[in-house]
Amino acid sequence: MLLDSNLILMDSSPVLGAAVTGPAVGLTSFLHPGSMEPVPVCAKVVGEDFAGGTSLTFTLTQSDSRDGPYADVPGSAITVPLAELTVGKNIGWRFLPRGARKPWLKMVATPNGTFTAGKIFGAIVREEHQPYGPGMHADKGAVQG
């Protein structure tokens, strides 16, 4: 996967007791980013499994300018339970939601409960990141997993 440092929404950001908001990412070359061809998003748990809380709610916010004000992207809120917050697990959105209509975006992770461990990576990416799961890999003609 190719990453552009200008398109990273969160970079191994710990999400413990309070909401975490990533930096502003500019998609200024799009008129309405969510209405273009699908724009892939990669969001995943990195470094360590989450522990302590019950779930995380992820939201994208948008603005007309880098400095805001920012408002939630309609339909972007996703709540992920603790059991699914494990290292390498894809979370969040596969593509930018259709409600993303403004050129500046931020990712917000809001913990439900108090976490003692857990970090998030999120970015707008060039291609989809869909790793192989059990039964999706063949080696010498035999399905693995």
Keywords:
145 residues, six-stranded antiparallel sheet, three-stranded antiparallel sheet, single chain
Description of the structure:
- It is globular, with a radius of gyration of 16 Å.
- The chain is mainly β.
- The strands form 3 sheets. Strands 2, 3, 5, 6, 7 and 8 form a 6-stranded antiparallel beta sheet that branches. It has a 3-stranded antiparallel beta sheet with strand order 1-9-4, with no helix packed on it. Strands 10-11 form a two-stranded antiparallel ribbon.
- The protein has strands at residues 8-14, 20-21, 25-26, 41-51, 55-63, 71-72, 78-81, 104-112, 117-124, 137-139, 142-144.
- It is built from no helices and 11 strands.
Short synopsis of the structure:
By secondary structure, this protein is mainly beta.
According to DSSP, the number of beta strands is 11
Largest sheet: 6 strands, antiparallel
Percent strand = 35-45%
Please bin the fraction of helical residues: under 10%
Element-level helix/strand string: EEEEEEEEEEE
Tally of DSSP helical segments: 0
Low-confidence stretches: none
Amino-to-carboxy terminus distance: 23 Å
Chain-averaged pLDDT = 86
* Alpha-beta classification: mainly beta
Radius of gyration, taken over Cα atoms and rounded to an integer in Å: 16 Å
Q: What's the shape?
A: globular
